[in-house]
Amino acid sequence: MTDQDRAFLGEIRRELVAALEELKFWLRIMNEHAGLIRNGLDPTEERLFREADRFFMELAPLRAEAETLIYTTPGDRIADLIERSLRIVSKLRDFKRNLTELIKECRILTILPADLIDHIRREADFFIGILHFVRGEPTPTKETIGIPDARERALTVPRLLISDMPERVEEIALEETLFWLRQNMEHADVLALYFRPGIQNQLVQITRSHAARLRDVLNEALEVNKHRRGLDKLLRRSQRVVMDWNAFLRQLFEALLHCSIPNGQINIFPILDDHMAREAEYYLEVLRLVGQVRRPQGMPGHEHWHPI
Ligand SMILES: [Fe+2]
Ligand SMILES: [Fe+2]
């Protein structure tokens, strides 16, 4: 084996380990999405219930398998799990897309809003993009993952590979920020709908104020995207706002576990609170990794930058 071969194989290994980290996070998320759909359909929607349940049951062992694999697991086993995950998550993504349309057209009965299903469809596309990145295949367009005015391909870089791409770190940071700020803002918008009127008004107010702050930073991110300046300031602000939002979710989850909020429960499954907190933490981890990369122009600090 030549040095070049060894370097090449080392690179593949890094990519597979990075993919494994993503599988551990995302397969749990996808499993929970399937459960959310299943439990949110009207009891008369038997066929869709069974379909959602099938996804739930198929994703559970994949998720368990990802959790048992470690970084020394042979590469072909990880590659095989990627392959199987891609197959089922692509089907789940299509299911979510169809469901969004069915709800919009009022052709099925459910308590789930179409926007929420489209939200989790976007997350499936983001995850699929990460797996395609690892396999060297085309990633989805930015539009597909909800980043407006951009028909170009998304980067969807696995977190552990960010440090390998210092020359693209600004682009990665902006894409992740645009994606996750929108997702977090929608979480806050949705959560505010599920408190009990009269008894939990204060929680509605707090949640709405987080939604407003997230919306504000998202607008700033869209401006940065347009003018290609002000990234550092944006990232600092975004980190602060998402950290506050995450702290609120964590506190609320504790309160839900102990039934210590007014009236004991809210009108949403407690696991969804934890789910939203984990998604906020994923983005905070991305920001931490971005901050660790030494940028050639001496970032952080320079306010003008150009994507490569
Ligand atoms: Fe989610
Ligand atoms: Fe989400």
Architecture overview:
- With 308 residues, this protein is an all-alpha fold.
- It folds into 2 domains: 1-142, Ferritin, CATH 1.20.1260; 165-308, Up-down Bundle (Ferritin), CATH 1.20.1260.120.
- It contains 8 helices and no strands.
- The protein has helices spanning 3-40, 46-68, 75-104, 114-134, 169-193, 201-227, 231-257, 270-292.
- Helix 1 runs parallel beside helix 3 and helix 2 (46-68) packs antiparallel against helix 3 (75-104).
- It is globular and about 70 Å long.
- The protein starts with a helix and ends in a 16-residue tail after the last helix.
- Residues 298-308 have low confidence and may be disordered.
- Residues 119, 123, 183, 187, 279 line the site of one fe (ii) ion.
- One fe (ii) ion (FE2) binds at residues 29, 33, 120, 123, 275, 279.
